[in-house]
Design brief:
The complex is a heterotrimer.
Chain A lengths: L14 E12 L2 E12 L3 E5 L6 H8 L9 E9 L2 E2 L7 H7 E4 L10 H11 L5 H14 L3 H4 L12 H13 L5 E5 L7 H14 L4 E5 L3 H7 L2 E6 L2 E7 H6 L4 H7 L5
Parallel strand pairs in A: 3-8, 3-9, 6-7, 7-8
Antiparallel strand pairs in A: 1-2, 1-4, 4-5, 9-10
Helix pairs in contact in A: 3-4, 3-6, 4-6, 6-7
Chain B lengths: L1 H51 L1 H6 L3 E2 L4 E2 L2 H32 L2 H16 L2 H20 L8 H25 L3 H9 L4 H12 L1 H17 L2 H6 L1 E5 L11 H9 L4 H28 L32 H31 L5 H5 L10 H32 L5 H15 L2 H15 L6 H25 L3 H9 L4 H9 L4 H17 L2 H6 L18 H11 L3 H34 L1
Antiparallel strand pairs in B: 1-2
Helix pairs in contact in B: 1-12, 1-15, 1-16, 1-17, 3-6, 3-9, 3-13, 4-6, 4-24, 5-6, 6-9, 7-8, 8-13, 9-12, 11-12, 12-16, 13-24, 15-18, 15-21, 16-18, 17-18, 18-21, 19-20, 21-24, 23-24
Chain C lengths: L1 H28 L3 E8 L3 H14 L2 E8 L1 H9 L5 E4 L10 E15 L7 E2 L1 H10 L10 E5 L4 H10 L6 E2 L6 E3 L2 H10 L3 E6 L8 E5 L6 H5 L6 E9 L6 H10 L2 H9 L7
Parallel strand pairs in C: 1-2, 1-3, 5-10, 6-8, 6-9
Antiparallel strand pairs in C: 3-11, 4-9, 4-10, 4-11
The chains are: A alpha/beta, B mainly alpha, C alpha/beta.
Chain lengths: 263, 593, 271
């Protein structure tokens, strides 16, 4: 997509996303407690921690998908570049176009492969067939699956295998050229081979895109993440470069978790 | 660039908001409709209550146009007795049938039997009436030798219990299937046999569902009109014997409306109003029973859905207990139900087919020779008008309920309550309302307009609920995917969600067509029964197929034509039933790929 | 959007198709002139026969709306039809209309064909309807009547001096049926009941019995010896004029030619 109908965020600094003094409540449940984090630009940051510690909740706050959940209340500040995500006049369309998301379970739309990819661009008003064709091809190539599906673009996306579906979802996220890509345990429902492919893909993508990934798999974080943050019970315990964090965790809790002494 | 974005944004949001407002309005329409129906019927019956006196009207036992005394006590007693008898019999049969279907039916038979029950639900009231009148009554006379032609409680109870059976069966079946499997396993682990587990553990666990089913059955029995009117005898008796001709609240309206003077008309509307109050009370009971509101979506559907249920339960051993006897009873009853259906269908076909001819169906219709051509046209016109009105209303309301409304908000509960109320109102009440509101009040006269609008009200709940059901089956992950790409709510609904709910919508359309084709009571009051000529437009009076059966029956000269028309109706019903299954099958197949 | 569009479009197509067909059909039909006759269901069968005869030779469409005498008269008063049909004489209450007798009709007492009874007395019939007393020396144990508003019932009750039908809890309570046809089909299967219908609607599915020794025949109705009889009346506006088409049909039904149709159908000509 050469011309951006929707304006991109200004990410001229080193920090793509910064979270300050953020608290999140589901009704009376305090799900995230006073989070301070900076996500470096064009790096892959992994969020690890036990289930229910608030990792997914955090990344869903970044593109405001939490808005869909009733009784969800957020305080504090989240900025992408210089733009306040939770400002009153925030355009959700623009936010979500620039902050793409890949979910835990592959969720292709019930339409053809082609239409799945074209859905995003069409949302933003691109109608021309040739332009759409170009976007579909480049997105699928970007997700390294063009060769697999180029002959079945018009078949239902629901017929793809799980791994293919997930890469399709990544391609779909790429189709609107996001600046930031949120991935919520993208490989947890997949077999090792598909997982490997997606990891390779992430390494490729992070060259010109900021990726924030939630994962349960510490080896995965170790393999691909530049930075890693450890969450526990709604608190961000520690964040550092991945190698440092795994080699010399500063916090006892992190150490326990990484070395399997947790729980 | 920035400004462009902003303009786009502003417009985008306002479009969303307008759409939301429209959806709210469409959803609120049901509330408006119910209030209008209650309000207008009350308004139209005020003269009767005022002139006769409320207590005299309710407890008076004489209904005579000659002396202008109108009391409905006799009809209330009649309706009450008939309902009690029919629900006792029909309810028992239905619960046994449902149990058999869920627990004992051999896997291969399940599909067919589901079809049988659905077909039973689809047979028009007027055909049941025809069958009761021409077959059952003479049979009863042969057996019991009463002093009359066989009118009365016994014949009515038998017919009515078959008519309410599908309603009760389908809801009972749903609630039986909702009982968790581990109850069964738990019972077996404690040493119960399969039969004991079914009757002592699973059946009690589905109690509240069965009670709801019975209440809905009561509602249906109270409201049934045409079939009852044909076999109840309409005498001024009290139904304290099997063969006393008596009158019900509904049959009284049909019986006397044609000749009624204004004061009697008002009394008849008041009769309908009393009926409506009974129905509303039943609805409240229903609410109380299903307090948690779970499974509400499926509750009023008369149609069985093919279950996703696992195989028939495995049987391990049998003991010589009472439960085993019940097991045998359930087999006998379900075979009987299948037999009854087959018998009705075959009876009508055997009597009707010999009199079907191309000329009778499509020939030019005139005073010398009435054919079915006008009925084809008028039925089609009614279907078109009703669907054009009800579809946007219903789908819009369903979209609001499923996509916009906060789950569990009071507004949603209120709308659901009113939609359910609308679904529970008997068609005779819709007919009366259509008569006083559209035909007289808005000066439409007996016309397809009045009938089509009335029918739209009748089918609205089906469309809302069916659409809502299938919207709710669309996984949330797809909505998330759409939102995450920056799409707005409208785009998500129309491009991602609705296309997946299309099966449900198509099913609801077919079911609605079935309902329209079956309808007679409401149409007699709104469209009249002019059957001789093809209607010239929506302003004309006309007769649909079901009304035509009634007309052929009542002029007495054309009983054979009545059978022939009834067989065409049955063919429609069978085709529509098969269509629904076909749509569901196609959809399931697509889902599997 | 595209898919929904497609669906909407196809729905629209279907709708236009249907409407188009309907339009075409109505288009053909509407060239014909039409007149409307409404009223008594007892008069309707003979009116249908007359209309069918008339339509053979005239390019016209006669709509007959079947209801009851009172409605027919009301429709005339309100100008809703071309003329009305009544199965009773007009009374002082019926203002602004005038009536012309089309023919006379007898009310036949009918029983099942298998009944051996051939004659009933007025008193017995009255006792059966009012008190449920079975007709002596016969299998007739119950009576079938018409609904309260029926013209046939009014005439029958008046002529037989029946005050009120039996009510209560016995199986002899009088069944009330909404139509001539209903009475006939019921009697055709019930061997123990007696009912009454318009003489013109009598056919071989049921058997008529004589009343006090007088058979229900054309002669006996004409010479007034058969007590159960009433006029069929055509109702017109008192000081209105008929449309040309309606006048043509009216002239026809009052003509000698029509009287042959009337007598052929079992009614009694008064000309």
């Amino acid at each position: 997509m050469k011309k951006h109908i929707i304006e991109q965020f200004d990410l001229s600094g080193d920090i793509a996303v910064s979270v300050k003094e953020m608290n999140l409540y589901y009704g009376s449940f305090h799900a995230l407690k006073s989070i301070y984090m900076d996500f470096p630009k064009n790096k892959l940051t992994a969020l690890i921690g036990p289930s229910g510690c608030g990792k997914s909740t955090l990344i869903k706050s970044l593109n405001r998908m939490n808005d869909l959940i009733e009784g969800c209340k957020i305080t504090g500040e989240i900025k992408i570049g210089n733009t306040d995500v939770y400002a009153r006049k925030t355009d959700l369309s623009r936010l979500r176009k620039n902050v793409g998301m890949v979910f835990q379970r592959p969720n292709p739309l019930a339409m053809s492969v082609y239409d799945n990819i074209a859905y995003g661009p069409r949302t933003f008003g691109i109608r021309s067939k040739s332009e759409l064709d170009g976007i579909v091809e480049s997105s699928l190539k970007g997700a390294a699956m063009w060769d697999e599906v180029k002959d079945r673009l018009n078949k239902s996306a629901l017929g793809l295998s799980g791994g293919q579906q997930q890469r399709l979802c990544i391609a779909r996220a790429l189709s609107v050229e996001p600046q930031i890509l949120l991935m919520d345990e993208p490989t947890s429902a997949l077999d090792p081979i598909s997982t490997g492919k997606i990891e390779e893909l992430c390494m490729e993508l992070k060259k010109n895109m900021t990726i924030i990934m939630v994962t349960h798999n510490m080896q995965q974080a170790f393999r691909i993440a530049d930075y890693t943050a450890y969450f526990l019970l709604g608190e961000m315990i520690e964040m550092d470069e991945t190698k440092k964090l795994f080699a010399h965790p500063q916090n006892k809790k992190t150490d326990d978790y990484i070395n399997g002494r947790f729980g | 660039m920035t400004t462009l974005t902003k303009i786009k944004t502003a417009k985008f949001f306002s479009k969303e908001n307008i759409a939301k407002a429209i959806f709210i309005a469409l959803a609120a329409f049901s509330i408006l409709a119910v209030f209008t129906i209650i309000g207008y019927l009350l308004y139209a019956s005020i003269p009767a209550f005022r002139d006769i006196g409320f207590f005299k009207f309710i407890f008076g036992s004489e209904w005579s146009a000659k002396s202008e005394t109108f009391g409905i006590w006799r009809m209330i007693v009649g309706t009450f007795f008939l309902t009690v008898c029919a629900v006792l019999l029909g309810g028992t049969l239905a619960v046994f049938t449902a149990i058999w279907l869920v627990f004992y039916c051999p896997k291969r038979l399940k599909k067919i039997y589901t079809q049988i029950v659905n077909l039973l639900a689809g047979i028009p009231s007027i055909v049941y009436g025809l069958f009761g009148y021409k077959f059952l009554m003479p049979l009863l006379v042969d057996i019991f030798h009463p002093n009359n032609a066989g009118f009365g409680l016994l014949a009515c109870t038998l017919i009515l219990s078959v008519m309410i059976l599908p309603t009760i069966t389908s809801i009972t079946k749903n609630s039986l299937e909702a009982v968790p499997m581990h109850y069964y396993e738990g019972a077996l682990a404690l040493g119960c046999s399969k039969n004991q587990a079914v009757w002592k553990v699973l059946l009690p666990a589905a109690k509240s569902g069965i009670i709801s089913a019975i209440i809905l059955g009561i509602g249906r029995a109270i409201g049934e009109t045409m079939a009852v009117q044909m076999i109840v005898g309409n005498g001024s008796g009290y139904p304290f014997g099997a063969f006393v001709p008596f009158t019900t609240l509904t049959s009284n309206i049909v019986q006397n409306w044609g000749y009624a003077t204004p004061s009697e008309q008002s009394a008849l509307i008041a009769d309908g109003f009393v009926l409506l109050i009974f129905i509303l009370i039943l609805n409240l009971c229903l609410m109380a029973v299903k307090k948690d509101g779970k499974g509400g979506n499926k509750f009023f559907s008369r149609r069985l859905r093919e279950s996703d249920q696992k195989d028939t339960l495995k049987s391990y051993r049998r003991t010589g207990s009472a439960c085993d006897a019940l097991w045998i009873v359930s087999w006998v009853i379900s075979l009987l139900v299948a037999f009854v259906l087959a018998f009705i269908v075959i009876f009508v076909f055997v009597k009707g087919f010999p009199h079907l001819s191309i000329d009778f169906m499509f020939g030019e219709s005139g005073n010398a020779h009435t054919t079915l051509a006008p009925a084809f046209v008028s039925t089609t016109m009614l279907i078109c008008l009703a669907l054009v009105l009800a579809l946007p209303l219903g789908v819009g309301a369903a979209i609001f309920l499923n996509e916009y409304a906060k789950k569990g908000s009071i507004f949603v509960k209120v709308i659901r309550l009113f939609v359910d109320t609308l679904a529970g109102i008997p068609s005779i009440i819709f007919g009366l309302f259509g008569m006083v509101f559209f035909v007289i009040g808005m000066n439409m006269g007996y016309s397809l307009w009045a009938g089509g609008i009335t029918l739209a009200l009748i089918i609205l709940p089906t469309i809302i609920r069916s659409t809502e059901q299938s919207l709710s089956e669309v996984p949330d992950s797809m909505r998330e995917a759409s939102y995450a790409l920056g799409a707005g709510k409208l785009r998500t609904i129309f491009v991602v969600v609705l296309p997946q709910a299309i099966t449900g919508i198509i099913t609801s359309i077919i079911l609605s067509i079935g309902r329209i084709v079956n309808e007679s009571a409401a149409l007699i009051f709104t469209v009249g029964s002019a059957s001789t000529f093809i209607p010239q437009g929506y302003g004309d009076s006309a007769a649909s197929f079901a009304v035509l059966v009634w007309k052929f029956m009542s002029n007495g000269l054309q009983v054979n034509e009545a059978y022939a028309t009834a067989s065409i109706l049955l063919i429609f019903v069978i085709i529509l039933n098969l269509l629904v299954s076909l749509v569901e099958w196609l959809f399931n197949r697509r889902k599997k790929i | 959007m595209k898919k929904v569009g497609k669906i909407l479009a196809s729905a629209l197509c279907v709708a236009t198709l249907v409407c188009g067909t309907l339009g075409a059909m109505t288009g053909c039909g509407s060239k014909k002139e039409s007149i409307t006759v409404s009223g008594s269901s007892s008069v309707t069968p003979i009116m249908e026969k007359l209309a069918a005869e008339y339509e053979k030779t005239h390019d016209i469409r006669i709509k007959i709306n079947e209801s009851d005498s009172s409605t027919g008269i009301k429709d005339v008063q309100n100008g809703l039809n071309d003329f009305g049909m009544a199965s009773r004489d007009l009374t002082e209450k019926d203002t602004g209309v005038k009536g012309y007798t089309l023919c006379m009709d007898g009310i036949a007492l009918i029983v099942n064909k298998s009944c051996d009874i051939t004659d009933v007395s007025k008193a017995d019939v009255k006792a059966l309807y009012e008190n449920g007393t079975s007709i002596p020396n016969s299998s007739i144990t119950a009576a079938i009547g018409r609904e309260a508003g029926s013209g046939t019932r009014k005439a029958f009750d008046d002529l037989m001096k029946i005050e009120k039908y039996l009510s209560g809890t016995s199986d002899k309570v009088v069944s009330e049926i909404t139509s001539t046809g209903g009475v006939k089909t019921t009697i055709a299967t019930a061997t123990n009941s007696i009912g009454y219908i318009s003489y013109g609607s009598l056919d071989d599915t049921v058997k008529a019995v004589s009343l006090d020794g007088v058979a229900c025949t054309v002669e006996n109705i004409m010479n007034n010896t058969y007590a159960l009889q009433r006029p069929f009346v055509i109702v017109l506006k008192e000081n209105g004029t008929l449309s040309a088409a309606a006048q043509g049909f009216y002239d026809y039904i009052m003509s000698a030619e029509a009287q042959t149709v009337i007598t052929g159908a079992g009614y009694i000509s008064v000309k």
